[in-house]
Amino acid sequence: MGLLEILSPVGDMERLYAALDFGADAVYLGGTAFGMRAASAKFDAQSLKTACEEAHSRGKRVYLTCNTLPHNNEMPLLEGFIKDAQAAGVDALIANDIGVFSLIKKYAPDMEIHISTQAGIVNYVTANEFYNMGAKRVVLARELSLDEIAEIRAKTPKELEIECFVHGAMCVSFSGRCLLSQYLINRDANRGECAQPCRWGYHLMEEKRAGEYYPIFEDEKGSYILNAKDMCLIDHIDKLAKAGIDSFKIEGRAKSSYYVSVVTNAYRMAMDIYKKEPDNYKLPQWIHDEVFKVSHRAYCTGFFFGHPKDSQYYENSGYIRSYDVVAIVDKCENGRIYATQRNKFNKGDELEILAPYKEPVKIKADTLFDEYDNEIDTANHAMMKLSIKSDVTVPGNSIIRMQAQ
Predict the structure, then answer these.
(1) Which region holds residue 141: left if phi is over 0, alpha if psi is between -120 and 50, else beta?
(2) Measured distance between the N- and C-terminal CA atoms of the chain, rounded to whole angstroms
(3) 356, 260, 380, 379: which is closest to 12 by C-alpha?
(4) 317 part of a folded domain
(5) Directed axis angle between helix 13-21 and helix 257-276, to 10°?
(6) What is the sign of the dihedral through the CA atoms of 34, 35, 40 and 46?
(7) Per-residue pLDDT tens digits for 223-276
(8) Is 17 inside a domain boundary?
(9) Residue 317 burial (CB < 10 Å; 0-12/13-18/19+)?
(10) Helix (H) or strand (E) holding 259
(11) Helices (H), 108-169
């Protein structure tokens, strides 16, 4: 059946706990350098060690990104970065550049190496060569169909693990290799600094009529000609598994802990259902619905089922958001849910609670109390302690959310 790992994105310690609590088998994160998400590079040597200890205490794994294309002046810094990763207990380094690969082998010869999607692996010959060089895993290019992935699986050693992105943001570049940001505003996407100009709205301007802008239309729907939809394969776990994918990767190291929790939980539950009945897989509607309860662009299935159709979104570059997190559960006892507020809600509001490995449950906030046990009509102070009268019992760190108004 393969590894069937749920791999979740982590941008800081809060999101680490979210991923681990809600069912990730492994997480990937960035250090303070050499990662493709410079804005979410939050883990220094000490916090990386703490993250590894927490993950390992739960039997989970930690993969550290080292997948930028470093220039000459950065190369001397790699020795310390690699040795710090090894000392912290990182389970694998994700690399792209062959020079970086060689330095990992030199300074941490026992370190597991995963070849980043940035390497653009689209055939079994390349995958085999990376395996022969010492790679444990290849993260395949996002531009492959399921049939192509299955052929790569069939023509590579079973010891070589195959990882694929199955959920999250996509871009119009090939496997994330893009020059738009660097060309337009000198922020190098290949060194983790992408400004996402593919999400901008563009117009034409005639050279002799400065200041007169003409929108670029494609069938009159708008000018976001480079704006890709998000990928979502939650309905196709069985097909992906049968194609030979070992690790199911969720994009989003720069996204919220709520996103990490909800999407991880959905894929965890879907995978567990598949493992129980691989030949009779049927996804419950509520799991399908979960991935629509996070902030997202319109969804598509990328290249998995052939040339992508309807994969661009022309209306705007914004997100669809249908739910807001209103509180995080601290504990449940004596017929009350004790929580910490995140967004305003009122007495009488219809709420929904998402606990790890569970279908969400609905409650009504008929009676609200502040931390001094005074009955209140509104929870309107950020991070205020509160309680809700309810017979529902859920673990700490469960999420209380409400449909956006």
Answers:
(1) beta
(2) 43
(3) 260
(4) no
(5) 20
(6) negative
(7) 456 677 889 999 999 999 999 999 999 999 989 999 999 999 999 999 999 999
(8) yes
(9) middle
(10) helix 257-276
(11) 124-133, 146-154
Structure tokens that stand for 205 in this block: 């301007």
pLDDT at position 214 is: 61
d(CA 195, CA 182): 9
My answer on whether 109 and 245 are in the same domain is yes
Task: State whether residue 30 is helix, strand or coil.
Answer: strand
- Report the alpha-carbon distance of residue 139 to residue 382 in Å, rounded: 40
Token digits of residue 313: 């979104």
Which tokens belong to 175? 């496997």
62 sits in which H/E element: strand 61-66
| CATH code of the domain containing 391 | 2.40.30.10
Q: To the nearest whole number, what is the mean pLDDT of the chain?
A: 90
Residue 195 inside a domain? The answer is no
Residues 149 and 235 in one domain: yes
Spans of the chain, pLDDT less than 70:
36-41, 173-179, 183, 189-192, 198-199, 201-204, 206, 213-226, 309-318
